[in-house]
Amino acid sequence: MIKLNSITCGYGKTPVQSDITFEINDGDVVMITGPNGVGKSTLLKVLANILYPTEGTVDYGWPEAEDPRQFIGYLPDSLSIYKSMKVKDLAELHWNAFGVQPDPLPLLKKASINWNSKIKELSVGQRVIFHLSLILSTGPKLILIDEILHSIDPYLRSLALETLVKTMADRKPTVVMVNLNYNEVEHLVNRVIFLTKNGILLNESTQYLLDNAKLERSDTAPENTFATRTGSGKTEHLVIPGTGEQLKLSDILTMLMTGSYNRNNEEV
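User: That's the sequence. What structure does it adopt?
Assistant: Structure tokens below.
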């Protein structure tokens, strides 16, 4: 189990998020989502152990790890790999750094990536596929994926997601992804953390949300309203738990993204 305890993080003197606490069970697939600029990627960097919190601690629960990064695979929102190196040379450098045996990286052939190509000759999508292949080849216990998958073409994105699904089935790693394209990943995740500028608005299992999140239409916000949206007709409220209309996970998250946040009728 990974535990974040009272994390405050950011850049410089101004924190992006303060007093963030939550736990991730082994094998969980967690989606961190929320509006732009609330610190989703920053929190992922804290989990990746490349950005240290100004307050609080991260406990990975890996007593055997001298450096937790040896068990972490991190795919950031901007790729910082050595563009002047060849694919095969960078792969060897990566495997030597992690002390693992070379891997054939079968995904490279599907993405038309030549081992002798330089990184700078690859498309953005091919670089993403290569980077993902590298981090998975070390057998990480924790896989962290930022929003970079949205920037690549549908074919390569489907390859990446298929590979991720197979890895989850075979190895049962813990996966945390930052995502705003809900339809593509809602079938993968079993927990959702919705982040706002003021902290965590929602941290629930997907099954709980599917069973309990309801859409209710009324002029006044019912008890347990999490978000309110005004459109044509009556005002819509996302109520958890509620008794109204059943919603898909993507509908629940879209309602949170497009509505004004409330928790028990208080502005968040």
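The CA atoms of residues 186 and 249 lie 7 Å apart.
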